[in-house]
Amino acid sequence: MTAWRHSRGYTVNHTRVRRLLRPMGLETIDPKPRLSPPADGHTSYPYLLRGVTGDRIHQIGSAAITDSRWQSGFVSLVAVIDGFSREVLSWAVSITMHVPFCVDALDQALDRGRPEMFNTDPGAQFTSHVFTAPRQKGGVRISRDGRGRALDHVCVERLWRRVKYEAVSRRDDQTVWDARHGLARSCAFDHAARLHQALGYRTPAAVSCG
After folding, report:
1. Can you give the pLDDT of all 210 residues of the chain as single tens digits?
2. How far is 65 from 180, CA to CA, in rounded Å?
3. What is the CATH number of the domain that holds 88?
4. Is residue 141 part of a domain?
5. Is the pTM for the entire model greater than 0.85?
6. Does 27 fall in a domain?
7. How many domains does the chain contain in total?
8. CA 41 centroid distance within chain
9. Residue 19 in domain
10. I need a surface site. Which of 82, 188, 205, 208 has the fewest CB within 10 A?
């Protein structure tokens, strides 16, 4: 904005521009700090993955949430992944980032097996009591990310990158129903056909079946 004003012959610095934009509620479209604040009154849990390599199925479970732009607006996506096999244990789609659809995905994942540890970021969806209670009841040890732990969810983030490139940008989907089917197709292909370098160029299906 400062450069644009200069091109129009106005003498102004970026500090003045920022001060004038603030009361108008105008800001740049870019990532902001603290995008995943914890829920009010949440319980603090230790970080349990330090030094853990993840060498067997059902050792580490991981969940992450993202949003994606579709032609009809934004939808929120959540997935639960086994940290060793990279298998997508469950996923869900919602038009909001509220807790219930995350809990639905968690319940589906726990029905398929209970990990020894379950790690998430400290976002409000994952620190709410309704999300932590099923894990505590099932004897799952809860692990929580701290500062500098962005790579703990890299397998989930890579899934989201693939979904956005393959199921979003190359398709003309219009509805949440289309988004759900696009995610289902991506997860099914990822499980049965995609070769993962970290798995010795095997598929999650081959690893999970032994």
Report:
1. 677 778 788 888 888 888 887 787 766 554 455 555 665 666 778 888 888 888 899 999 999 888 877 666 778 889 999 989 999 999 998 888 888 999 999 999 999 989 999 988 888 888 888 898 888 877 899 988 765 565 666 778 888 888 777 766 555 556 777 778 878 888 898 899 888 888 888 999 999 886
2. 15
3. 3.30.420.10
4. yes
5. no
6. no
7. 1
8. 22
9. no
10. 188
